[in-house]
Amino acid sequence: MIVAIRCNLPLMQHVRRTSLIAQVTELLREEIRAGRWPVGSRIPTEPELTELTGTGRNTVREAVQALVHAGMLERRQGSGTYVIAASGLGGTLSSYFADAHERDVLELRQALDTTAAALAAKRRDDDDIARLRELLDLRNQGWDRPEAIDADVALHRAIVAASHNAVYLEFYDSLLPVIEPDVRERTARTGESFDAEHAAVVEAVIAGDAEAAARAARCFFSELLAQYPG
């Protein structure tokens, strides 16, 4: 009998006998959609998935490969398999954005982050507020720490998540594989951390001031874009 993936998570429905590969693929896809395996995280190893689903290694391997082809997972030699998009559409967009110019991505992010910040100020809940404060603190504990950039990327995503707009969040997740290396490259080049600018956005969101949140987000990206001529 096939068992649900556990990993200290609520049990899934058991799969039926027909089309095991398709059913296991859907189980894995649901873990990603539900956010239990977030974008950027590594999924369990093949032996672990074999044990957790109660299926054979070939079935698991084909299910994982199906999500690789769909653009949701990426195999990294010597490291494992990682979630790169929350949907097949996100995977397609991620591939497209991978070849985009940094300035073009920043201009797109300015539009997304500005609107998301305003929506977040209107819709954020107590969990969102706690998460934003935690990530802002992690980010500002020292910009020379590698994990500070991880916190920075997570902070921007948390603001989008606080907008409680699922379409915005899925689209934003498709940008994450491009955003993180861009932030690292820009930081290595300029060393700028923009601590005050990030604090202004977060505090406006927490205060519920949509106009101030949008203004702070727009000003931050304007500063970044000023580095590019034209």
Features:
2 domains, 230 residues, 3% strand, elongated, Four Helix Bundle (Hemerythrin (Met), subunit A), mainly alpha, two-stranded antiparallel sheet, Arc Repressor Mutant, subunit A, 66% helix, 10 helices, 2 strands
Description:
66% of the residues lie in helices and 3% in strands. It is mainly alpha-helical. It has two domains: 65 residues, Orthogonal Bundle (Arc Repressor Mutant, subunit A); 136 residues, Up-down Bundle (Four Helix Bundle (Hemerythrin (Met), subunit A)), CATH 1.20.120. It has a two-stranded antiparallel sheet with strand order 1-2. Strand 1 and strand 2 form a beta hairpin. The N and C termini lie far apart (62 Å). About 2% of the residues have low confidence.
What's the helix and strand layout?
Blueprint lengths: L19 H14 L12 H8 L3 H13 L3 E4 L3 E4 L4 H10 L4 H22 L2 H14 L6 H17 L3 H25 L4 H13 L2 H16 L5
Antiparallel strand pairs: 1-2
Helix pairs in contact: 1-3, 2-3, 4-8, 5-7, 5-8, 5-9, 5-10, 6-7, 6-9, 7-8, 9-10
Helix content: 55-70%
Estimate the strand proportion. under 5%
Overall form: elongated
Secondary structure tally: strands:
2
**Spatial order of the strands forming the largest sheet:** 1-2
Domain count = 2
Number of H- or I-type helical stretches: 10
- Average of the residue pLDDT scores: 83
- In sequence order, what are the helices and strands, one letter per element? HHHEEHHHHHHH
Low-confidence residue ranges: 14-18
Distance between the termini: 62 Å
CATH superfamily of the largest domain: GntR ligand-binding domain-like
Return the CATH topology of the largest domain. Four Helix Bundle (Hemerythrin (Met), subunit A)
| Whole-angstrom Rg | 19 Å
Main sheet specs: 2 strands, antiparallel
CATH class of the largest domain: Mainly Alpha
- The structural class is mainly alpha
CATH architecture of the largest domain: Up-down Bundle
